[in-house]
Amino acid sequence: MRRNRLPAPLVAGLVLAALIVVVAVVAPMLWQGRADALSADIRQGPSGAHWLGTDALGRDVFWRTVVATRLTVEMAIAATAIAAVLGTLLGAGIAAAGRAVRAVGDRVIDLLLSFPPIIIALTFTAILSPGRASVVGALGLAFCPQFARLTNRLALSVNERDYVAVARLLGVGRFRVLIRHVVPNIAAPLLVLVSVGFATSVLTVSGLSFLGLSVQPPAYDWGSLLASGLRNIYDNPGEALGPALAILVTGLAAGLVGDGLVRHLDPRGAPPPRRPAPVPAPPRPAPSGGTGPEGGAAASVRGLSVRRPDGRELIHEVSLTVGAGEVVGIVGESGSGKSLTALALARLLPRELDWSAEHLDVNGIDLADPAKAPPARLATELGIVFQDPSSSFNPALRIGTQLTEILRVHTGTSRRQAEAMAVARLTETRVSSPELRMRQYPHELSGGMRQRAMIAAAMLHEPKLIIADEPTTALDVTVQADVLRLLKQINREHGTAILLISHDIGVVSALCDRVCVMYAGRVVEEVSVEDLRRRDVRHPYTRALLAASPETATDLDGARLVPLPGRAPSAEAREAGCAFAPRCPLAAPVCAEVVPALVAEPSGNAVACHAETSTPEVRT
Ligand SMILES: Nc1ncnc2c1ncn2[C@@H]1O[C@H](COP(=O)(O)OP(=O)(O)OP(=O)(O)O)[C@@H](O)[C@H]1O
């Protein structure tokens, strides 16, 4: 893999650090005698014979400072290593644990972080009795919470990224997710903390020795030399200057290494790869024709409910079917339950949520029975495109690595073949210069290009169903139509069914065959797109959405957009009766008490509204 040249601070830091390590290793072997030799020249100032003068016993301060490097650096490295290993394991363990352990772990880390490390180190040292080993152990424990907090926060945030969701959908094991996705994305900040931790350890180790709590005579480190130097500061300032400078230079080296590593490891700092020689585009794969089992559905959901741990229902008995090759939209305001419905189909619901369903399947795979739905199989039947193309790809890996990995993990395709297939898909999804893109990092692609690359990734296995969760919301308006056209083209040419989630009724009416309107966790209307375009809808909420949509409301007669007043109730605020009643112009007394059932009509549409149907069903 080609990397950019090492940044200057990293080079400077590494040179300095290497020098310090060499000195630490060789100094006691070569110059211990000079450092410990007594002479009659006591407390002399700097001279040609003694560059930093001598101490109270006539020993050469320069050589003592040089020899003390080993003990100081050894102790700082040991303390940092203990803190980094223990803290990282602790943080990762808490991130991977269940909710209860996470809550307790977080509080314990918060508590430990509220004490300055030096206080913790002093307390442990006092308990364990002064000495080198106790100081190293105490410092390791004192800095451990900082590593635990950082690892925990980083791992949790990376875990929530869409590319981790995709990896989970693809059935990538926890360990591989950790190695491929979590570690590369948290390594840089952890390395900075290691360098800061090392610099702080040098200071604290020296500080504790300065106080007489660490290295005991006749051994000496920079802290004990500094203590003796301060006692003689008026006779020979050089005696304090030597160890002080050594501490400063070591801290500087650690800082430069940390800063340089961040720049070097961040792929956003890399120069663009050279444009490869143009190669003829591989042939477009032939359309697969029809999909799904004969007469079967690409996805089918019946009675899906999702609950929070406290039992509150977030979505209630949602039912919908996506026929083979059909494009179905789910539309509704923020919080209506669109994404949870889609995530349930991909088996990507957050762990803390509880779900149940009478029936949940993707192209015949029963998702309610994990034994019948091995992740690898689901991964080949289902592709997913998320809203934010910037979080859909792992920022630490090149686009090509991520695309080919999907094929290599699941089908054992050779690298060369996987690359050819990935390039073909990128070409098909109209990603310009696909060979070049394969070698680029996600941040080097524009938003629209990344989203097309994401669609290419979702299409790699020729899935029967693509779930597109707000695929255009994060995009520039100029490329939104392009991405929608691409999805429609895929649907036409491959017969891929699409479940499109959007809050924009204009987007779904442009792309879909059928639309489910959701409100407060329920489907309130299901309508064909022809009826939607004609505005022949029944539910007052769907009418309100249409009236508020610019694409449909700016009529030839100049009708103005009508905003929908109020807000959808949160899960806590939902009461008995129809959740839309407080905002509904047609609300009647029954609406406040009875939840209307979704009633199918002969046309195939369905609506849940007392004003439109006469067979209410009580569901609270
Ligand atoms: N992990 C979770 N824990 C608790 N509540 C959640 C969780 N995930 C989602 N919710 C809640 O479930 C409800 C439905 O969420 P969902 O993401 O499906 O809404 P949405 O219709 O897709 O909205 P948006 O367009 O904003 O994404 C919201 O009220 C949301 O706050």
Number of structural units classed as domains: 2
Could you estimate the helical fraction of the residues in percent? 40-55%
> What fraction strand?
5-15%
- Bound small molecules, deduplicated: adenosine-5'-triphosphate
Supply the CATH class of the largest domain: Mainly Alpha
- CATH third-level topology of the largest domain: MetI-like fold
Gross morphology: elongated
Enumerate the spans where pLDDT stays under 50 for 5 or more consecutive residues: 271-295, 616-620
CATH superfamily of the largest domain: MetI-like
What is the straight-line distance between the termini? 59 Å
Architecture of the largest domain in CATH? Orthogonal Bundle
Biggest sheet overview: 8 strands, mixed
Would you report the number of β strands? 13
Strand arrangement across the biggest beta sheet: 7-8-9-3-10-11-13-12
Q: Tell me the Rg in angstroms.
A: 33 Å
Number of helices: 21
Return the average pLDDT rounded to an integer: 84
Structure class: alpha/beta
